[in-house]
């Protein structure tokens, strides 16, 4: 009898795997906090071909961003193991009707009839499409004009997501309310009027949806995901029942690799304007809802850690010092006057409500007896929070905390500051300023690590 039960269980498990309906946590699934560190990779979009995962992503222009979300190109990457990622080529806005503008916002990629199509956003203005003979390009503009123009729907026609089933290619786009339409066989147009998609909560009230939708299907359920929220329906065109929290992170792209669901999810690697992509496995409950692991987080939070392994991570000199990235990790500088000041990249967007301390691991090769620290914070609920915040900060008007240190050290020492020492800390830490040897006119310093925790 036990053998029969065991055999039936194995059969059911195999059927479930065949239908991609596996339930619960798979401890062998691959997870990677960031697939390409400190690169500015944003809006990842995956396509699987012969067990190779190709990703087309946007690239943030600079970790000193001017304006909100300037993105200077798209890039093609791939991996055969989900651990190591290889760069193939860049796709530039000048190769499209956009021209030479940093408007390379989110898109999606697919194959049809032996050709590959990259649907892309011209910022939040409209949507275009490019075509290639190979998944890694080169890509050329298919139309020389938008596929989805301004005014085609009452919301901005951008951030396309593709859904393919039974030879029908559906495009979903918009913000606030999503719209869906069917793509023509030649991918040059849509064949019907865009249909608004309803997302409702348990009380039947409409739910506002953020930008960049993603769609995938598992069993009989369609999943509509946007950032860290999701909804479900048994009908592609909805209505969708809002389920609440998804995995923590930004824009998403779903794919299956070796019978496991995965999501590539945008994170705030260097800052909110110089991002990265996390790889996470996706698991499901018996009722088909998504399991949210207790240790789930949006990289690099909570807090933020600067280990300077690959680069300066956006830190630079404001005055009276150089800043050099060290080959073995860390950054260093030569002093040319007192009050030498370093600043981090802007738009850190770190949630201060989850943080209590900051530690600084320093080798002080000078006569300095003090370091000084200042932080610039904002409230996320401020009007036009995302519109702009790129005026130079007057650090002279910010509050500074003074920390005693040991002079002329040959080894690194860690100094810790309680954030409660600052009189006012708003909800989001946007930038950090540090004087690593504030009272010394000459000498050198080395930073191994700065950590907000």
Please outline what is shown here:
By secondary structure, the protein is mainly β.
Task: Summarize the structure in words.
With 453 residues, the chain is mostly beta strands. The chain folds into 2 domains: 28-299, Tachylectin-2, Chain A (5 Propeller); 305-452, Galactose-binding lectin (Jelly Rolls, Sandwich), CATH 2.60.120.430. 4% of the residues lie in helices and 43% in strands. It has 1 helix and 32 strands. It has one helix spanning 2-18, and strands at 41-49, 52-60, 71-79, 86-91, 104-112, 115-122, 126-132, 140-141, 161-165, 168-175, 177-182, 195-197, 199-200, 214-218, 221-226, 229-233, 240-245, 252-257, 260-271, 274-281, 304-306, 316-319, 324-325, 331-334, 341-343, 350-351, 357-366, 370-378, 400-404, 413-418, 428-435, 443-452. A hairpin with a 2-residue loop joins strand 1 (41-49) and strand 2 (52-60). It starts with a helix and ends with a strand.
């Amino acid at each position: 009898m036990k053998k029969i039960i065991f055999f039936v269980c194995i059969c059911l498990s195999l059927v479930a795997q065949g239908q991609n309906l596996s339930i619960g946590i798979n401890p062998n699934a691959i997870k990677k906090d960031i697939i390409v560190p400190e690169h500015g990779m944003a809006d990842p979009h995956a396509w699987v071909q012969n067990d190779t995962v190709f990703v087309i992503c946007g690239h943030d222009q600079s970790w000193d961003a001017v304006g909100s979300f300037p993105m200077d190109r798209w890039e093609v990457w791939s991996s055969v193991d989900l651990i190591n990622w290889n760069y193939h080529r860049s796709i530039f806005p000048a190769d499209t009707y956009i021209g030479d503008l940093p408007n390379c916002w989110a898109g999606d990629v697919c194959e049809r009839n032996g050709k590959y199509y990259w649907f892309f956003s011209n910022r939040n203005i409209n949507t275009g499409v490019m075509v290639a003979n190979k998944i890694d390009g080169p890509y050329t503009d298919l139309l020389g004009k938008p596929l989805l123009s301004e005014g085609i729907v009452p919301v901005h026609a951008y951030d396309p997501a593709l859904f393919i089933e039974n030879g029908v290619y559906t495009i979903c786009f918009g913000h606030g309310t999503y719209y869906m339409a069917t793509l023509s066989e030649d991918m040059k147009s849509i064949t019907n009027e865009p249909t608004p998609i309803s997302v409702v909560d348990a009380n039947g009230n409409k739910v506002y949806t953020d930008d960049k939708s993603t769609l995938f299907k598992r069993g009989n359920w369609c999943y509509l995901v946007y950032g860290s929220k999701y909804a479900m329906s048994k009908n592609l065109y909805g209505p969708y029942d809002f389920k609440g929290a998804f995995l923590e992170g930004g824009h998403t792209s779903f794919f299956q690799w070796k019978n496991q669901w995965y999501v590539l999810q945008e994170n705030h690697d260097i800052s909110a304007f110089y991002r990265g992509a996390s790889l996470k496995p996706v698991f499901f409950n018996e009722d088909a809802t998504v399991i949210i692991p207790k240790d789930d987080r949006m990289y690099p939070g909570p807090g933020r850690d600067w280990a300077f392994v690959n680069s300066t991570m956006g830190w630079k000199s404001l005055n009276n010092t150089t800043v050099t990235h060290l080959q073995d990790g860390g950054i260093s500088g030569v002093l040319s006057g007192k009050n030498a000041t370093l600043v981090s990249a802007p738009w850190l967007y770190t949630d201060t409500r989850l943080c209590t301390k900051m530690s600084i691991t320093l080798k002080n090769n000078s006569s300095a007896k003090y370091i000084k620290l200042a932080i610039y914070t904002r409230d996320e609920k401020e009007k036009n929070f995302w519109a702009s915040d790129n005026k130079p900060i007057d650090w002279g008007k910010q509050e500074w905390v003074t920390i005693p240190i040991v002079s002329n050290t040959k080894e690194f020492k860690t100094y810790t500051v309680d954030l409660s020492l600052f009189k006012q800390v708003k909800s989001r830490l946007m930038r950090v300023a540090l004087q690593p040897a504030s009272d010394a006119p000459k000498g050198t310093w080395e930073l191994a690590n700065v950590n907000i925790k």
